[in-house]
Amino acid sequence: MSELKVDVDPRELGFDPDRLRRIDRHYDRYLERDLLTSWAAVVARDGQIVHATVHGQRDREAGLPADWNTRWRIYSMTKPITSVAAMMLFEEGAFSLLDEIRRFLPEFSQPRVYLRGGATNPSTAPAAEPIRVWHLLTHTSGLTYGFHHGHPVDEIYRRSGYEWGVPSGVDLAGACAFWANTPLLFEPGTEWNYGVSTDVLGRLVEVVSGMPLDEFFRTRIFEPLGMSDTAFWAEEGEALDNLAALYIPRPDNKRAIRNDALGATGRSRPAFLSGGGGLVSTAADYHRFTQFLLRRGELDGVRLLSPRTFERMTQNHLPGGFDLERIGRPLFAETRYDGVGFGLGFSVLLDPVKAKTTGSVGEFAWGGAASTGFWVDPQQSITAMFFTQLLPSSTHPVRPELTQLVYQALMDDK
């Protein structure tokens, strides 16, 4: 068992243990009200765990408990891993951030931008600016998601089967061919919109490295970092048995109900290797990834990124230095836009007062559609993670609540 446990007296690292226990009491109330079926939270400082709890049932209907072996669909927590993969290739000189992606993905040679009209007959024009690598890393490419339900282009995606995934049998190359021939929401580099940019980035990794994305992840990231339980699917046997069931909220009372149609994700090898949202992982594995991030690209003597590259990844790259409120299109998630920028694969906290959070300037983070999330606070040397399996993440404010609960227990600022 990849058990996570407290390995130091929290007081030695500036935390009040009684206040940390508020985390458990708070999230257990979600279980009591049947709003979640399971949850896990891990908090660490200076690389040492000060709080670790896993409660509930990974499969309520089968009566199976959640534990540290539970595999969680981490959805968009895949994105930082794909971004790390791309920046590893950047460091090898494979491309520059300003390179046009059509150099590697010729299907994107002639992007067009939506002007007006409905999904069935939109008016478009040739893009004045090509999509560049940094546009993919920052979600400023003009690509979108079908599940946004906020724009005619979103509807075009949905009509073709690109909502919470891709049509059956379509691989990553096939999906990129569709997206390349679908209008962009805006001129690349002018706005921020959450979408399939990181999936296209994953395809870029494949083409540049000459390796399928799963093989690149396994050999270049997971094996070096000791993340042995992270993959695009749970293998038959113990790993599959430990995969948590997926739940959605009832429309009337938000109680969690099982959804096996969406829950099929992660149960077998997919044709589509989604660098934007396809991985299954354990809390222990992702804890190792957060420690790699906290240590600016190195863990246990294994360095995958230089400190300078990593620092640039966690700075705000949005046009004009603006925050997401100023330049971003509305999200489906419960997180705020005020005072939050975006780097190369992570959100970046620019102004805690504006964001109405107790976090620190420079804190970087991201989450997943099934209400999972993580953040890293370099200033205070803190990492925190939350896992459950309730889709969508906008259902409950579990991720901002974790920030509140962690920082109220911190008694010693650095």
UniProtKB/TrEMBL annotation:
Positions of transmembrane segments: none
InterPro entries (UniProt xref): Beta-lactam-related, Beta-lactam/transpept-like, Diverse_Enzym_Activities
Entry's Gene Ontology molecular function annotations: hydrolase activity
Pfam families: Beta-lactamase (PF00144)
Entries under SUPFAM superfamilies matching the protein: beta-lactamase/transpeptidase-like
Superkingdom classification of source: Bacteria
Domain Beta-lactamase-related: 25-405
Keywords: Hydrolase
Protein name: Serine hydrolase
Protein species of origin: Amycolatopsis taiwanensis
